Amino acid sequence: MLKHTLLQALKKKEIGLLFIQDWIALYPNAKAYSSPGLEEKRKDVIFDSTLTDVAEIAWQDEIEQLIFKGSKAMEEVVFFHKRRIKGVGRIKGVGC
Question: Which of 19, 53, 68, 80 is in Cβ range 3.0-4.6 Å of 64 for a Cys bridge?
Answer without folding.
Answer: 80
